[in-house]
Structure formats: C-alpha cells, structure tokens
Amino acid sequence: MPDRRAVVTGLGVASAAGTGAQEFWETLIAGEKRLAANAIFDPAGFPCHAAGQIENLSARKVVPKSYRKATKVMARDIEVAVVAADLAFKDAEIATKADGEMSIEAGRLGCNVGAGLICCELDELGQAAKTSVTDGKFDMKTWGDTGMTNLTPLWLLKYLPNMLSCHVTIIHGAEGPSNCITCGATSGILSIAEAARWVARGAADVVIAGGAEAKLTPLGVLRQSLLERLSSDSNDTPESACKPFDAAHSGTVMGEGGGLMIIEDADRAKQRGAKVYAEIAGFGAACDPNGINVTEPNCGSLDLAVSKAIADAGITADDIDLIVAQGTGVPGEDRCEAAAWEKVFGDNLPNVPAMAVTGTTGTMFAGQSGVTMVAGALALQHQSVAPTVNFTTPDEGCRLSLSGEARKCDINYVVVGAFSVGGQSAACVLKRCEA
C-alpha cells in the first residue's frame, strides 16, 4: 500500500505574539512588537531585561474539571503545551476525551511533543539545595542523604521532558503512538515530521505534534547569559531588543512559547470536510558535531537539512516561495544561518521572500520550530509574508529577502528551517493543498 498523505488540519499556538492561531497571525502580519520587560521575575543583575512572555496562560482554564488537580504538578512549559493542544484540537474540530466523547478511535490518535530538558524553578530546587550546604559549600553526599528528601515527592513529575506529551495524551485520550523529542529549537520540526511519517505509514490517523518550552526562569536566563547569547543593549527599549539578521543585532531575547499541529490522514480529512492548512511535503535533518562546542556559532549543517527536505518533497529550490528562517539575533548565529540558506538557494536567495518571528516572540528553544511551523502554515493560508519585526538594515553578507513590511505573495511551497546550539538542524516543506 502506498504511503498516505499527511496534512495539517488544526493549529494551536501560545506565544508572546498571541494565544490562538488568529491572534498570533494578526500580531505577526501587523508587525506588532510584543517583547517587553521581564515581568515573570526581577531580572536585575542579569544583562538582559527583555522577554517574550505569554499573557494570561492557564492550563486550568482548558482542562476538564476532573483533571484540574493535575495542574498543580504542571510546570509552565507543560501548561504551554496543554493550552496549545486544546486550541489545535478545537481548530481542527476533532472531539477528544476532553470533550466527553471522541470523534476518533483512541488507538488511532497519537501525540509527539518536542520539549526542553529539565527546566526547574529555583524556589523549589534552591530550598532543597540550601539544606545540603556544609561549611559554606554544597556537599553532594549531604544532598544524596537528606537534601533531595526536601523536594516534594512529585517534583520530578513537573519537569521531566516527556510530561508534556504525557499530560496531552491523558487529557485527550490519545492511545496511539506517543513520543517526546528533546533537540532544542529543532524539536518541533522533528516531532511534526515523525508524526507525519506515523500517519503516512498507517500507524495513526491523527497526531498532535509540535514543540513547547518556557525557559524564562532565573536559571534559564543565567545559562544563556553565561553563553553570552542575550541582548544587553536594549533594556530601556525591550520591544526592540531582538533584531534577527539586522546589522544592529546584538543578541537574542528569551521567549516562552509552543506551537502544535494536528497532522491527519488526507483521506480522513477530506471525508469529514476538514479545513486543510497545508500538506507535509518534505522533511530533512542534519547535524554538525562541532555544534557541541556551544561557545562557537553553529547552525548544525542547516543547508544540508534544507536540501534534504526540498528533495524529499520532490521539488527544487526554485519551487520554494517562502523561507521561514529562525533568526536568533545572535550575530554569529545569524551569519551562519544566512550563509546556510545561501548555500541552498545561491544567487536566487534575494528573490525568495523570507520571514522570521523572533523579533516578536523571542527565542523559544524547544517551542521555536513548532511556532514557526504554525507561522508557515498560516502564511500559506493567507498567501502573505509577515514582516520581520526589528529588521531594517540587513547584516553584512545576509541576502535573505526579509522586510519590515507585510507582503502579499503567491505561495505554493514554504520551507521552515531550525537549528539548535547543540549542532542539530531540521527543515520541513509545507505544500499548499486541499484535502
């Protein structure tokens, strides 16, 4: 039996640019600046005070009453995933266990949510660690003997990476294939691509997939500060702190966010009259072991991943109508990424419209490419290219066709690319289609 086609029938997103596909797209296309001073914790003492924050985030508002107690053991990244999942299922008009009655067989519904590694809150871990200090120094033996006992017994259940998929599957009654991928900013694309392959080979009929993460904690900001990745020259104007591919880029801004898609068998989608945003047409992944040295700019052989995705879609680079780039705003990373795109598109690169969302959302780590995949699908639906916020003058050597203004375009194929500081890269081609 030939592979089945996998299409996107639902979108769920939560980010600084908005919660829900409509608000998210309206913010992007209007070029609104949504970065702001960090209101989650006091950033004094850190070099960067800007952040991309989700407003009014609450998983409690969207889970069934019978599940609300479980929100007590949901870290913020779990809440992001749970909210995005609820939005995606509602957008696709697929009833799940959360609705009381399922419109799909539980065993044919899968889940694959990309996540970050354990991102803990200092107020919990710090208090336990404090009890392990002996003579002014942290003592590992004391930590093992008594320190860890000061953590709540359910502490690990808040922070394990697979908890995002775990809660989503329980809430929605998904009993099909389930997975969790932890590969930094590439996690969303990798999860969506794997989900599309489950559908293509008949392992599932519907899969919810993407990525989510919320690293806006003191420990998360400290790590990025030590890596010198954060913008530190725009604390008085936080809305302008992240400038992807711009000559004035000086670093990234940490954001929280998640983007999940409903990936569905095309025949099933057609039979039920579903709205179809795009077809998952091609996928590619690559890595560069040099990326393990996180102090050196690297984009994980992104050019190879993009080339593989385009070839997998059965097209050439000349057929691509829109590039959704990552654009962290870190000068060395932007330059590596711009060079990677040029390796694929060559002299035609300036003729292919491009966009990046980080000037609006900040860098969302494991949530990054899930959100950019949602942006690519919405660009296909609206046949428009969103402005790249805070981009005015291209950095030297950057030939990506970015603009600070919205553009109407005839878009049939979109390629979305992502890379992680650890050296992974991934790309996915979305194709305009109807079920």
How would you describe the overall organization of this protein?
With 435 residues, the protein is an alpha+beta fold. The protein has a single domain (6-118, 160-431), classed as Peroxisomal Thiolase, Chain A, domain 1 (3-Layer(aba) Sandwich). The chain is built from 13 helices and 17 strands. The protein has helices at 21-30, 76-92, 122-130, 140-145, 155-159, 163-172, 187-200, 218-226, 266-271, 302-312, 331-345, 358-361, 368-382; strands at 6-15, 18-19, 36-37, 50-51, 109-114, 133-134, 137-138, 178-179, 206-213, 257-265, 278-287, 322-324, 354-355, 384-385, 407-408, 413-419, 424-431. Strands 1, 2, 5, 8, 9, 10, 11, 12, 13, 16 and 17 form an eleven-stranded mixed β-sheet that branches. Strands 3-4 form a two-stranded antiparallel ribbon. A two-stranded antiparallel ribbon has the order 6-7. Strand 16 (413-419) and strand 17 (424-431) form a beta hairpin. 56% of the residues are buried.
